[in-house]
């Protein structure tokens, strides 16, 4: 407990405008500047004086002793029961003043009210300036500025003390506008002049509403009155300018102060801290030591959040060491700040140790620890601490901050029950009336998938601010209903509220999810008109919007205009290019990022691994793997999965298995990648073995797991097994199949020739089939020669996607395979009329870090002659081994010789020939193709692998084919 002040009368003495020597206590409780007469009359007899000097100190000493020990009720009873006749009642007045001050310190408003009743009961004290000033202060310290105002209004006369006390009361309770209004009333309607106590309260109020212009006006007033040289006023000015972000003004005031105390330095440190200038904070600490000051607990508590905000655990530890050296580490505020710093810097175990050793925990201690677990996403730990807080410490009660710290842990649907329990507790204890708490519940309900509950809480907020609307709009945009987010925005506008930067960010996100390019451009126009384009969050959100809308050029223009490109900005562009399957651009932007000296971390590296997968650029992928190893990024679970995926999609399933085996943590995502990898590389049975192993390890598969399993069954012709897993997915694991799962099963049945069964499954689907399902089944109809079913499917496919060239190619190929050349010409004529063009067969191969591309029939390459000669030699060798051109693969009405010549120009044959020409004997040839490999190229590749004794890996748009010793991993089923 803070030490109680001496008797009231000792405070009120005339003092000069500027002091040079003040105790630390006076910094916290400045003395008044107006005198109060304590002269005694000269006609009192000696007995009266003797009684006063002997009895008055005894009463005050008893009251002081009881107040310091916290026995306020006993002190009140003593005061009530004191019937001894004291001269002029001054001892009683002093005692009541001391007791009121103690009630303020201990926030015991009930006892304070009883003292107020005593003051009102005695006529001589009813309008006493000193006691009423103490009453105003007591009520404000107990959080009841309304009672302070009632005391103030009830006075028949007022002096500057009372005005200062009320202005301070409003400022202390964050009623900043009321504080400023009282100050204006003071200077405009009274003859009192504000003093060095008035101005600090007013400057703090200006800081509270971030009105630096008004603060500057009051600064000028203080200068004219000669008060700016006072250390209290100077400290308040430094604090105000720092809080408002005007650091140059803060520094200017600080440097001109004729006298500085430790509070001055701490105010300057806080200003730098609140504006993110961490290094300047640390530099000031060194200057403090050089000036002969020793940092106090306020200095340490100001510095630690700087380290926490920067995530700089090393600096936080140094500050911890300084606190230990100065003997400040046992201060409760310092302990709490240290726990908070360690948890925010990722050292949660250190925070737990400090928490366990803290024998004087208060609500801030518990809140800091709960916040640490919540930020880590440890739901169990967060709620366990919340329960312990209520059970282990009777003196600590949950408050609004506790609720705000718990709610971020509620991120998934499974936390919905706990969230509702917390909501009920908050409702019973009145926390739901707090705007921040209500907004946090809105956000938490949206994250847990209960959009109706979020709206219910929102509609229950009586005075909805922009922040309230933001909580709902942002939650809807991020968690499943972007259209409703836009609808609520229009309601917000109808309510007369203007959006802020957070609203704009949420609207951009909603438009991105909905791919509303037109609305997105309108928002972009609003951003430009209101000068928000300089905000990095808004700019990055706009980039993401254009990427989602497939407007990569617009995103690139925004990116190029940004002067200070943050890591998030680079990551957004990398992820965007990867998402839009522009791997060359991804690699280009990554190289640009490195050349600009920006250190890539997990997200950037994951995007580049995906680009290597899309390009089938194995060498680049291996180089990036080495980079990730050196940068110690492979320990990240997501990076590990990306490396695993890169090897699997480059046809290196053995290396993928090695990466998988080396993962310290194998989550479901890692298993999913490996299962899908084995499936697409022709090892369907191995994929199913992995799935069964997952089951034995009690790992619960998800929807992506079953996509991998069903694809593996489809590629391996394991129809019965696939149907069994499809049924188990629903019955055993409770996973409702989505369109992706149905597409896999339809593809599996179609490849096996079970076309009627595939059609039956489509008719039983709860959703309408999309173009992917119809195009897959159409390919199967062509493969199995079912023209009748194929024609019906073709009609539905072209109705769904009439502007997609590959659909017309599929229909054309169906008719060409059955020799229906008139229908082929009709389909191609329709394509021509619409303006669609068939994608040419395109293959590529990576050699020595460079990607070489080949288009079917291209004879203009620099190495075209060598490639033709290489193929001619190969054709002779494989013909001797039994190869015969399969001209049924040429779906054009040509002569036989022309068809054979067409087959020779297929892009995968050109790429294989080039690979053999440019690589050493025994090395593996790896080729990628944008279309499905044709039957003739497949047969040729098998014979080539035997003739040259090389492994040839071809990745088409469906799967991998590993050719070796005249055989293919697909077992001729694809």
TrEMBL record:
Residues 882-974 form the DYW domain. Residues 33-52 are annotated as: Disordered. InterPro entries: DYW_dom, E_motif, PPR_At4g14850-like_plant, PPR_rpt, TPR-like_helical_dom_sf. One of its GO terms (molecular function) is mRNA binding. One of its GO terms (biological process) is RNA modification. Coiled coil: none annotated. PPR repeats lie at residues 159-194, 230-260, 261-295, 362-396, 465-499, 566-600, 667-701. Keywords: Repeat. PANTHER family: DYW DOMAIN-CONTAINING PROTEIN (PTHR47926:SF383), PENTATRICOPEPTIDE REPEAT-CONTAINING PROTEIN (PTHR47926). Belongs to the PPR family. PCMP-H subfamily. This is DYW domain containing protein. The lineage of its organism: Eukaryota, Viridiplantae, Streptophyta, Embryophyta, Tracheophyta.
């Amino acid at each position: 407990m803070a030490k109680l002040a001496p008797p009231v009368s000792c405070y009120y003495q005339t003092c000069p405008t500027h002091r040079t020597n003040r105790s630390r206590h006076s910094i916290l409780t400045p003395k008044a500047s107006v005198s109060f007469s304590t002269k005694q009359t000269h006609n009192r007899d000696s007995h009266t004086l003797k009684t006063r000097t002997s009895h008055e100190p005894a009463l005050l000493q008893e009251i002081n002793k009881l107040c310091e020990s916290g026995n306020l009720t006993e002190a009140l009873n003593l005061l009530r029961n004191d019937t001894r006749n004291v001269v002029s009642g001054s001892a009683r007045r002093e005692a009541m003043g001391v007791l009121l001050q103690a009630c303020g310190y201990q926030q015991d408003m009930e006892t304070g009210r009883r003292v107020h009743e005593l003051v009102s009961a005695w006529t001589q004290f009813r309008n006493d300036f000193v006691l009423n000033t103490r009453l105003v202060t007591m009520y404000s310290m107990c959080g009841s500025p309304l009672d302070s105002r009632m005391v103030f209004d009830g006075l028949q006369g007022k002096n500057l003390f009372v005005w200062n006390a009320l202005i301070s009361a409003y400022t202390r309770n964050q009623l900043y506008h009321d504080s400023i209004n009282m100050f204006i009333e003071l200077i405009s309607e009274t003859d009192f002049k504000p003093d060095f106590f008035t101005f600090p309260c007013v400057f703090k109020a200006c800081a509270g509403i971030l009105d630096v212009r008004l603060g500057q006006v009051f600064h000028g007033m203080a200068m004219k009155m000669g008060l700016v040289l006072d250390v209290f006023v100077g400290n308040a000015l430094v604090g105000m300018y720092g809080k408002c972000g005007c650091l140059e003004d803060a520094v200017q005031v600080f440097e001109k102060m004729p006298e500085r105390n430790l509070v001055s330095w701490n105010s300057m440190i806080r200003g730098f801290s609140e504006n993110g200038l961490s290094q300047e904070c640390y530099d000031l600490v060194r200057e403090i030591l050089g000036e002969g000051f020793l940092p106090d607990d306020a200095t340490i508590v100001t510095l630690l959040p700087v380290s926490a905000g920067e995530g700089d655990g090393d600096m936080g530890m140094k500050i911890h060491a300084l606190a230990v050296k100065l003997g400040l580490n046992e201060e409760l505020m310092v302990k709490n700040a240290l726990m908070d710093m360690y948890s925010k810097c990722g050292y949660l175990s250190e925070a737990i140790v400090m928490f366990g050793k803290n024998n004087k925990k208060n609500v801030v201690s518990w809140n800091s620890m709960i916040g640490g677990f919540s930020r880590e996403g440890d739901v169990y730990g967060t709620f366990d601490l919340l329960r312990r807080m209520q059970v282990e410490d009777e003196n600590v009660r949950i408050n609004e901050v506790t609720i705000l710290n718990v709610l971020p842990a509620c991120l998934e649907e499974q936390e919905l029950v706990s969230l509702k329990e917390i909501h009920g507790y908050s409702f019973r204890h009145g926390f739901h009336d707090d705007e921040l708490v209500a907004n946090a519940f809105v956000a938490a309900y949206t994250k847990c998938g209960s959009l109706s509950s979020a709206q219910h809480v929102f509609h229950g907020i009586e005075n909805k601010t922009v922040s309230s609307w933001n909580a709902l709009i942002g939650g809807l945009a991020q968690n499943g209903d972007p259209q409703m987010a836009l609808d609520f925005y229009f309601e917000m506008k109808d309510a007369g509220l203007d959006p802020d930067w957070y609203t704009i960010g949420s609207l951009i996100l909603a438009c991105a999810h909905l791919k509303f390019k037109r609305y997105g451009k309108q928002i972009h126009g609003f951003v430009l008109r209101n000068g928000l384009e300089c905000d990095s969050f808004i700019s990055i959100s706009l980039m993401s919007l254009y990427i989602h809308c497939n407007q990569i050029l617009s995103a690139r223009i925004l990116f190029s205009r940004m002067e200070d490109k943050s890591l998030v900005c680079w990551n957004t562009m990398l992820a965007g290019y990867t998402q839009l399957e522009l791997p060359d651009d991804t690699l280009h932007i990554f190289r640009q990022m490195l050349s600009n000296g920006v250190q890539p971390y997990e997200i950037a590296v994951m995007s580049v691994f995906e680009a290597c997968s899309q390009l089938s650029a194995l060498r680049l992928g291996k180089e990036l793997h080495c980079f990730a190893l050196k940068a110690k990024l492979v320990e990240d679970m997501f990076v590990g999965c990306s490396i695993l995926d890169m090897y699997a999609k480059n046809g290196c399933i053995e290396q993928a298995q090695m990466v998988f085996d080396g993962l310290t943590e194998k989550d479901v995502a890692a298993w999913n990648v490996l299962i899908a990898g084995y499936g697409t590389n022709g090892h369907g049975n191995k994929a199913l073995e992995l799935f069964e192993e997952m089951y034995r390890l009690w790992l619960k598969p998800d929807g992506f797991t079953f996509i991998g399993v069903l694809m593996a069954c489809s590629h391996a012709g394991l129809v019965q097994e696939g149907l069994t897993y499809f049924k188990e997915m629903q019955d055993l694991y409770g996973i409702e199949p989505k369109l992706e799962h149905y597409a896999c099963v339809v593809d599996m049945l179609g490849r096996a020739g079970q076309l009627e069964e595939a059609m039956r499954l489509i008719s039983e689907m709860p959703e309408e089939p999309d173009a992917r399902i119809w195009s897959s089944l159409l390919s199967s109809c062509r493969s199995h020669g079912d023209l009748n079913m194929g024609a019906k499917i073709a009609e539905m496919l072209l109705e769904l996607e009439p502007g997609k060239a590959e659909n017309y190619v599929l229909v054309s190929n169906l008719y060409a395979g059955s020799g229906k050349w008139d229908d082929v010409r009709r389909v191609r004529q329709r394509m021509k009329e619409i303006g669609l063009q068939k994608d040419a067969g395109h293959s590529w191969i990576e050699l020595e870090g460079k990607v070489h591309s080949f288009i079917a029939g291209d004879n203009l390459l620099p190495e075209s002659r060598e490639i033709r000669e290489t193929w001619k030699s190969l054709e002779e060798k494989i013909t001797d081994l039994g190869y015969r051109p399969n001209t049924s693969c040429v779906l054009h009405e040509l002569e036989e010789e022309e068809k054979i010549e067409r087959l020779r120009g297929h892009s995968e044959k050109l790429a294989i020939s080039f690979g053999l020409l440019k690589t050493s004997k025994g090395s593996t040839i790896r080729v990628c193709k944008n279309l499905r490999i044709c039957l003739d190229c497949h047969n040729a590749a098998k014979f080539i692998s035997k003739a040259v004794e090389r492994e040839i890996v071809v990745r088409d748009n469906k799967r991998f084919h590993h050719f070796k010793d005249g055989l293919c991993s697909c077992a001729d089923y694809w």
